[in-house]
Design a protein that fits this description.
Rossmann fold, TPR-like_helical_dom_sf, 15 helices, alpha/beta, 50% helix, Serine Threonine Protein Phosphatase 5, Tetratricopeptide repeat, 8 strands, 8-stranded mixed sheet
Length: 384
């Protein structure tokens, strides 16, 4: 089986993102093969050391495509991080119902349902982690029966998933109260999204509304939580609306600095613009388990805030970050040049523009621009 998935990885890295690769895994607990759809990130074949969050879609036979479509669109704009998407497919509705079987008196998996629960945590996830570069952050998504069933992982002391996309869940006995109770006990960051619609099945929606009421009343200091009720949608048509809402909610901290974030959160600060940038990327690492380089456009946003608020001393701190992020580029020396220039030390500013001229261009920083700055400062330095 390992050989099979390695061949899939090679094929996908050669063909590029968008190819759906079919795989299978034999389950000892279920005593049969289960079938998977796999889509790897665009950069998977380019960086052999990088690990990626996992998004496991139950009901992969119909949830896989809308999730992949959302990801492809978001990757284009760098709004969502690259993830490994795996769809766990059901061959028949009967198989789906059997594998999500719950004891009506205990509200817990029973029979084949218990075996299916153990298959996901004890066989499928270890198989994927062994053969793919999976980061600690793991998402599970389900609809209807599977959306309710996946919540059982929250009942464990150490849930195998960090984030849950629950689309119009069919919730067994007392689940609407058990989930908030469990969520309130977690000491690490958890993410939970649930969706319903005004045209949803009444018995399902009533429990979802009860869950939302309990979640909002609970002390959920470590939980990123959102509930959406979509207008004009049904039990089925809410799915393509809910998927992007959930992913953008979970990964909101990942997204580049937007014009709204700049205007409402950054430029209004009296100081601490560089600290804001550091905290933003620290939060990505702590919440999502992802270490990523600071985007050039985010550096430009902080530059703009510094200039607008005339907080020129912060250019020195910004240079420390930019030297770590882009050590071979002219960015750090440009920031230091701005620091000295705006503090009246034109000789040191000239020196850093000269240093920048010898380094790699980046973004709108070019050798021509550095030369222009040098020519502008030289006469002023000579006068002094």
């Amino acid at each position: 089986m390992k050989k099979t998935i390695l061949l899939l990885v090679l094929a996908l890295s050669l063909n590029g993102f968008g190819q759906v690769i079919k795989d299978s895994i034999f389950s000892n607990r279920l005593d049969k093969y289960r079938y998977l759809s796999i889509s790897l990130p665009p950069s998977y074949g380019k960086d052999a050391k990088r690990a990626y969050p996992l998004l496991l879609a139950l009901d992969g036979d119909y949830l896989f495509d809308p999730i992949q479509g959302t990801l492809k669109y978001a990757y284009y704009w760098d709004d969502l991080p690259e993830v490994i998407l795996v769809g766990l497919n059901h061959t028949t509705d009967t198989e789906r119902d059997e594998e999500c079987k719950v004891d009506e008196t205990t509200g817990l998996p029973e029979g084949i349902g218990e075996s299916f629960f153990e298959f996901i945590g004890g066989e499928l996830l270890p198989y994927l982690q062994k053969n793919l570069r999976i980061a600690p952050f793991k998402i599970v998504a389900g609809h209807d029966v599977t959306a309710g069933f996946m919540n059982f992982y929250l009942y464990k002391d150490n849930p195998v998933f960090n984030a849950y996309i629950s689309l119009s869940p069919v919730m067994p006995l007392d689940m609407e109260t058990r989930i908030p109770e469990r969520m309130a006990t977690f000491q690490t960051n958890m993410f939970y999204y649930v969706a319903s619609a005004d045209g949803d099945i009444k018995s399902i929606k009533d429990k979802v509304v009860a869950l939302d009421t309990q979640m909002k009343a609970a002390n959920l200091a470590k939980v990123n939580y959102r509930y959406d009720e979509f207008k004009g949608c049904s039990h089925y048509s809410l799915v393509p609306f809910a998927i992007p809402s959930a992913l953008y909610q979970f990964f909101s901290v990942y997204q580049p600095i937007s014009s709204n974030e700049f205007q409402e959160k950054i430029v209004v600060l009296q100081s601490g613009y560089v600290e804001y940038l550091k905290n933003k990327y620290d939060m990505v690492e702590k919440a999502l388990g992802m270490k990523m380089n600071i985007r050039l456009n985010d550096f430009k946003a902080i530059e703009a805030a510094i200039i607008k608020n005339k907080a020129f001393n912060e250019f020195e701190q910004l240079a420390q970050l930019s030297r770590k992020a882009y050590p071979k580029s002219m960015l750090a020396d440009y920031h230091m040049a701005r620091f000295y220039e705006n503090n009246g030390d034109l000789k040191m500013a000239l020196k850093h523009y000269q240093n920048a001229f010898q380094l790699q261009e980046i973004g709108d920083l070019t050798k021509e621009m550095m030369m222009d700055k040098m020519e502008e400062l030289k006469p002023q330095v000579k006068k002094k």
